[in-house]
Amino acid sequence: MSDTNSTNALNAAETLLLRLVRAGDADGWRQLVNRYEQRLFAFALGRLDQSATAQDLVQETFIGFLQSMNRFQGNASLESFLFRILRRRIVDHYRSRGQHHVVHACEIGDEPVHLNLENVPSKDTTASQHVHNEEQIDAHQNALSVAIGSVTNELRESHKFRDLKIAEGLFYAGLRNQKLAELISIAPNEVAVVKHRLLQRLNDQVCCVLGPVNAASERIETDLITAWEVHRPSCPKRSTLRRYTLGILPPPWQDFVSFHVETLGCRYCLANLTELKSVPTPNRRDDRLFQSTIGFLKPTLD
């Protein structure tokens, strides 16, 4: 059984919640808000200087989710989708104040690599060309998602945690070979060799789906960081994070999760850990966020 996220569709609990919310079920919406509110707030609070602002942006995130729910295809987890909306709200918040702010997935990293899978067409692009381009981008994303899931699953199942560290250091945190080699205490050429092997395997798998013409290796390397962040295949499950906090994971897994959350500083997992470590109190949650967003809940067609 995997201890990390899957790049595939929603899990059973998320599928049920989404079905209820799409049907306009108020109790389903309350469950979704309660499930994700605290980890989203922990993420926002780490990027902002005021608790009230963080609360406002989390509220906007849930409203944004309801407004964009029809566009959610279920090819990533609900948590990842909500985090992506929240990141955009944080960036927009700073932009409205005349500040440029980049929200990295990890606390460690070199200069950010801005990768956009939703390419903006030129002004000369016709409607039919735009649709064709979007279809190509969607096909490439889907093929790359399957390839990432296959490769990371193979690394986990074979307990090749060094290679998995290299993969997420390169394609998730965006580290350069030299920096990553120092963190893992290996030679930079070892990182380069593993990187070349991983890219080749990913390219081969994408080519199997799209063919060699549509799956250039440079396109894969360009899209990997964004695709990795969308699907987060190396992020530990919450149950794994809980066992990590108790120190009861098998040593190889304990070491990998430590690298993921403490060395790379995955902000999504740190937000989950903040929620998990918080001392539970009776009636800790209140209905303010639910009540402020329920008016936006409308039944939708699948």
Automatic annotation (TrEMBL):
Gene Ontology annotations of biological process type: DNA-templated transcription initiation
Domain spans labelled RNA polymerase sigma-70 region: 32-98
Coiled coil: none
SUPFAM superfamilies the record matches: Sigma2 domain of RNA polymerase sigma factors
InterPro entries the record matches: RNA_pol_sigma-70-like (IPR039425), RNA_pol_sigma-70_dom (IPR014284), RNA_pol_sigma70_r2 (IPR007627), RNA_pol_sigma_r2 (IPR013325)
Protein origin, superkingdom: Bacteria
Cited Pfam families: Sigma70_r2 (PF04542)
Gene3D superfamilies per record: 1.10.1740.10
Entry GO MF terms: sigma factor activity
Keyword field: Sigma factor, Transcription, Transcription regulation
Name of this chain's protein: RNA polymerase sigma factor (Sigma-70 family)
Organism placement in taxonomy: Bacteria, Pseudomonadati, Planctomycetota, Planctomycetia, Pirellulales
